[in-house]
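Shipment paperwork, digital attachment
Item: protein structure file
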Amino acid sequence: MKNLKLMALLCLTVAASAVSLAAGETLDLGDARISLDLDGLGSYNVEVGSPTSLDHDYDPRNSDFQYTIFPASITFDGASGQIQIEVHQMSTSQPLDTPISDKDTSTGLEHCISEADMMPRRSQVQMEPYSIDGQDGTLATVGQGDDQMYIVAYSPDQNGGSGATVCVIGSDLPWEATEKIFDSVEVQKA
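Attachment content:
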């Protein structure tokens, strides 16, 4: 009888895990597998874009490097909000928490946010530290009032303030929904 109860408890635990997994979405972008919880946001569509490779020669103090951007977007049926994701995969590990040059005092993470395709140009931006997926990151609040967008960036392979992969996730959903999504983000490197 005791074994039967244990077996029933195990089955309930597995079933509950399957339900919570069904509420999540997992995207493979570059060398990153990004999981996020979209439960309660309704039906949605995922569109994975084509990667773009570029040369980076912005900082004269560091050697040039190449990087590839892997984009995706999630749109919700019947809603105007969306989530945008970019994985910036660099050929070499780069400093992310220090100024990128003598002339530009933004950090590597702030620079990735500023250069992301999802970043509206000429908008009011407030940057602040933000913890995501157990890592130190940067949160940008873009715009003001009811017309705000939130963009977070962090490196899942960060070590000693540097990393070769940066995940940039943006949302123009209300902050309550956005915060829930950001809190659910988990990234595994391939």
